Here is the input.
Amino acid sequence: MPDGVGAVLFSSLESTNDTAREAFARGEIGPTWFAAQEQTKGRGRLGRTWVSNGGGNLYTSLLFKPDVEPAELAALPFITSLAVRDALIKHGADGDSVQCKWPNDVLINEKKCAGILIETILSPKNTIDSVIVGIGINLNSFPDSAQFPPTSLLAEAGFAPQPDEFLATLAEVFIAHWLNWILNGFTVTASQWTDVAWGLGKRRSVETSAGSVDGTLIGLADDGALILKLDEGGEKRLYAGDVFSAKNK
Ligand code: BT5
Here is the structure.
């Protein structure tokens, strides 16, 4: 692991995000990666389940306390996705095949190989007490079905490393992408992300809590919103949702 960065490995637990939160409650500030070989209550966004019983996968959460404003954390899904993408490539995935899908997924050959769940702990004064970056990576296995077609590094690249080896790589490249953002700002991170984004310039369907909207993906706004050129004209900025291939018009 990088200097000054901790790692704690478990065989089985409920959710590494919860384990990180419990560590925070005990007074730990990290940076520490909590990782498990299996989760019994792995979760995604909106209370969804993250299938976490596949042997040889990585379920991990980074606990740390960044010195930034809460609004700036809009950059974190993109920093994290770029780091996961780099780690997959360093472990054998073909660079052209690995894409980032808004807001928090990493795809290989247009199938979901990794998902990210970021949780922020704020102080009563609305400053950041801690951030938990949860990442699930299908190294060896993946579920039979999911809302978006799933895959694993093994299935796409023919080889997968041990989860702890992958974690060591991920911890290194995460720092690189974090520092890149701190030093160069969101414009640089956003352009690196859009260079490898799935579906940019193409028609897509975005499912939001307010329903489904169809349009062409344009890119990222300064605040991390997804800009969609609507089929019926005009643009829309989206802050949460799931992107799918669009139905034919
Ligand atoms: C995510 O949510 O993609 C975030 C997943 C984060 C998981 C990590 S594991 C370590 C840490 N501890 C946790 O408890 N969580 C984090 P979302 O975008 O909402 O996608 C969830 C959806 O992906 C599910 O509803 C399924 O359809 C699908 N899915 C579930 N498990 C999957 C898997 N292993 N591979 C691919 N797709 C999966």
Q: What stands out?
A: Residues 203-245 form a domain with the SH3 type barrels. fold (CATH 2.30.30.100).
